[in-house]
Specification:
The chain is mainly beta and 113 residues long. The protein has one domain (15-112). 0% of the residues lie in helices and 35% in strands. It has no helices and eight strands. Strands 1, 2, 3, 4, 5, 6, 7 and 8 form an eight-stranded antiparallel sheet that branches. It is globular, with a radius of gyration of 14 Å.
């Protein structure tokens, strides 16, 4: 696992463009480390954003940092992304995701270690 601090954490390993209601996955052993929204975008409600570690990185299947009492790894109050959330054009999010699927919009997903 290449958590931040590894050599290739900011997309130096390539990127993928997506503008259809389909899914993309990074190469084996890699993750998407940043996603830039090229137009207002809605992610698929189930597989739209699958986190490598759902306790640390938010997604559409789980809410990271959603405990009622914080621990050494996970905080409190985090929410799950759902189909009611629209990511506006021009926003870039950072994390570690193994799958991205759109309902609408377009993105560039950057690959890292």
């Amino acid at each position: 696992m290449g958590y931040p601090g590894s050599q290739n954490e900011f997309g130096q390993l390539g990127c993928a463009f997506l503008d259809t209601a389909t899914a993309i996955t990074p190469p084996t052993g890699r993750v998407f480390v940043a996603i830039t929204f090229l137009e207002d975008t809605v992610l698929d409600a189930f597989n739209g954003l699958v986190a490598e570690d759902s306790e640390v990185f938010f997604g559409t299947g789980d809410a990271a940092h959603s405990l009622t009492t914080a621990t050494g790894k996970e905080g409190t109050g985090g929410k799950q992304v759902d189909a009611a959330n629209t990511f506006p054009k021009g926003v870039t999010i950072y994390g570690r995701w193994t799958n991205v699927e759109l309902d609408s919009g377009s993105i560039i997903a950057y690959i890292g270690a």
